[in-house]
Design brief:
CATH superfamily of the largest domain: Succinyl-CoA synthetase domains
Radius of gyration: 19 Å
Order of helices and strands: EHEEEHEHEHEEEEHEHEHEHEH
Number of strands: 14
Helix content: 25-40%
Strand order of the largest sheet: 3-4-2-1-5-6-7
Distance between the termini: 23 Å
Structural class: alpha/beta
Shape: globular
Length: about 290
């Protein structure tokens, strides 16, 4: 089992013919992802060659790609200025899942296309995220597929780098799915969305949740865990040493007074029964102890 992404997922890459799109399409193909097309209106009808004698067709629109291939996932590798148009095009085509890797998307654009996607029934992941991986089945985004394997842990994380570290630290146990939701102030899929999906997935036995300073997403997730999640959850919150009032890294990572601090988030999670590590490695050790116990 997995959440959102399986071996049967058919993926189109918006921006596949650009440098980032080409690089990561190559990596996604190598990890077993079923990529069925690229989208670039200026290169419609072309065939793009990839290693191992793989050729991928380029379509003029997401709608054309879906009609020809039955694609049900799109991943967006386009510059920030064009991201809103790309997402809205995918939503208008009826794409069920759109994964937005692009960093630096204006928050007003994200608010607009998130509202539109919600209205139309499309799930968004991102922007400013590494995407998601169901190890051994499919990998959509930029997560290295070689650092982990399939198993019984679900992972949801605001941070791309910490996603990679946790996948590596617990690689011997493995993961059902790991979702990097992104660290912007507005993201399409939240901690709570993933917690609900992992709770309902019979093969996910335990959940790692990685948050960071800024906003109140982790506090809201803690309240949800207390009410709805029966599986063990281990957490980590990045940013204990961050100075007040200063943006750190992600656009969403800013604290004001006690609101949004790592300590406040840690306390909220612990009050909901979540074991919270002081470091990523300690978090991995806590998960290991739970599963071995």
């Amino acid at each position: 089992m997995a959440i959102f992404l399986t071996k049967d997922s058919k993926v189109v890459v918006q921006g596949m013919t650009g440098s980032e799109g080409m690089k990561h399409t190559t990596r996604m193909l190598a990890s077993g992802t079923q990529i069925v097309g690229g989208v670039n209106p200026r290169k419609a009808g072309e065939q793009v060659a990839f290693p191992d004698d793989v050729t991928i067709p380029v379509f003029g629109s997401v709608a054309d790609a879906m009609a020809e291939t039955g694609a049900d996932v799109s991943v967006v590798f386009v510059p920030p200025a064009f991201t809103k148009a790309a997402v809205i095009e995918a939503v208008d085509a009826g794409m069920p899942l759109v994964v937005i890797i692009t960093e630096g998307v204006p928050v007003a654009d994200t608010a607009e296309f998130f509202s539109y996607a919600t209205e139309k029934g499309t799930r968004l992941i991102g922007p400013n995220c590494p995407g998601l991986i169901t190890p051994g089945q499919s990998n959509v985004g930029i997560t290295p597929a070689t650092i982990t394997g399939p198993g019984k842990i679900g992972l949801v994380s605001k941070s791309g780098t910490l996603t990679y570290q946790m996948l590596f630290e617990l690689r011997d146990i493995g993961f059902t799915t790991a979702v990097g939701i992104g660290g912007d102030p507005i993201v399409g899929t939240t901690h709570i969305d993933c917690l609900e999906a992992f709770q309902n997935d019979p093969e996910t036995e335990a959940i790692v949740m990685i948050g960071e300073i800024g906003g109140d997403a982790e506090e809201r997730a803690a309240a949800y865990i207390k009410e709805h999640v029966t599986k063990p959850v281990v957490g980590y919150v990045a940013g204990f040493e961050a100075p007040e009032g200063k943006t750190m890294g992600h656009a969403g990572a800013i604290v004001s007074g006690s609101a949004g601090t790592a300590q406040a988030k840690k306390e909220a999670l612990e009050a909901a029964g979540v074991k919270v590590g002081k470091t990523p490695s300690e978090t991995a050790r806590l998960m290991r102890e739970i599963l071995q116990g």
